[in-house]
Amino acid sequence: MESTSYTTLKELFTTHGQGHIFDHYESLSPEGQSLLLDEARQIDPALTNRLYRDLVNSHAPAKSSEGGRGFLPIELEMVQDRSQLGEGEREIGNALIREGSVAVVVLAGGQGTRLGSDRPKGEYNIGLPSGKSIFQILTERYIKAQQLAGGAVQKCKLLIMTSELNHKQTIQFYEENHFFGAVKENVIFFMQSMIPLISSSNGKIIMEEPHKISIGPNGNGALFDAVQRYPEVKAVIESVKYVQVIGVDNVLNRLLDPLFIGFTHQNQLQASMKSCVKRDATEPVGAVMKRVQEDGSTMYDIVEYSEITKEDATAINPATGELKFNLGNILVFLIRADLLMKLCKNVETLNSLYHKAHKKVPFWDFEQNALIKPTAPNCWKFELFIHNFLPFCEPGSFGVLKVSREDEFGPVKNAEGVDSPQTARDLIFGQGQRWLSKAGATVAEGVKVELDVMLSYEGEGLEEKYAGKEIGEQGAATYIK
């Protein structure tokens, strides 16, 4: 709808009972008119009305994945530690990688605002000696995994989900950097949808200003919606066996991890996730568990820390001696492609993946010609979350692979303190030092070592080159490539 005219847009929105967004179009400045049209082109009024009808106006009960009679830990036999996997799983994974049977989706719709940047978050340079951006680190790891799998050419697809905020900038960044060595044709960019906020009183789209719709991205689960909206994305999903989904802000993400892929395939799982054991009972992260329904049945789900009682949060599992609910979500999933397609093809199922939230949001009152700040919730917001597919997994078909924080979870969310560029750098430096020491090198005290992503994926290939060697000057930062 990129070049859709005002007349066509007005007719479309009027047909769906949302033509009021253009009631004051003629009184806007040319710039205001252009801004309003740009926002309207991002909206599917038919979807908006359908969500309101099915999730709100039908007085639909809470989702089957909400409420219930409590929680249970996921089955012990469905949880495995990555360190326990071996060459069997690795070769299974590598074979699927060589075939190009695994696609990777990077959820990269956010900006680096909390990091002090107005650019796409993936462009952010976390301050390593190499000067690499998050996008470069992740893309090179995707390339390195394919090299290690023994493929003569890169066959796996890399799908990057952007938003209206950063789509053009992200594409430009990749083009300027020659796709960081990835095959250009294998990298596909797609935008997540924008969903307007809907008035609780009448189901109408809310305006933030006369020229601005109250609108926002439809959540990190936008992949579900994009499969139908983007033919090229759908074609990729239909051509592969598995889809790995990751967040952009974890610089230690192992894209196309053969052990993860092999673990999922060998156990014939519909889906799996990577998890880090929670630091303690109070760490405010979502955890995977089974939600007990009113009828006594259970379903897999990611449950936020705020949803469980203090008693549940601190409970000990007598079978393991650990916290009962300790499998933290680090936003790394592997989903079988046929399950993904099944969820996305059915409109009713897709609607059920959406969450509705009653929000208190300022709105423009055209009679008063002013922005009104309500004192109570006044609108509905609809969002998709990537983990919303879990309740659709059959019993015994969802697995959890426990991984080390030090090697696989380096989030960059805050400018300083916890989960900041500094903590991510320290994790990368610590990893480099461990890998070199294991290879027989002597690393000078206090040295900060960054090993190039293309040099080693998880510590392999270093012994022959660095065994017996001294690395770095005391206290200095060293980049090895």
Corresponding CATH architecture of the largest domain: Alpha-Beta Complex
Euclidean distance between termini CA atoms: 45 Å
Mean pLDDT: 92
Strand order of the largest sheet: 2-20-12-15-11-3-4-5
Globally, the shape reads globular
What fraction of residues sit in β-strands? 15-25%
Query: Helical content, roughly?
Result: 25-40%
How many strands appear in the DSSP assignment? 24
Structural class: alpha/beta
In CATH terms, the superfamily of the largest domain is Spore Coat Polysaccharide Biosynthesis Protein SpsA, Chain A
Please name the CATH topology of the largest domain: Spore Coat Polysaccharide Biosynthesis Protein SpsA, Chain A
Number of domains: 2
**How many whole angstroms does the radius of gyration measure?**
24 Å
Protein name: UDP-N-acetylglucosamine diphosphorylase
Pathway: Nucleotide-sugar biosynthesis; UDP-N-acetyl-alpha-D-glucosamine biosynthesis; UDP-N-acetyl-alpha-D-glucosamine from N-acetyl-alpha-D-glucosamine 1-phosphate: step 1/1
GO molecular function: UDP-N-acetylglucosamine diphosphorylase activity
InterPro entries: Nucleotide-diphossugar_trans, UDP-sugar_pyrophosphorylase, UDPGP_fam
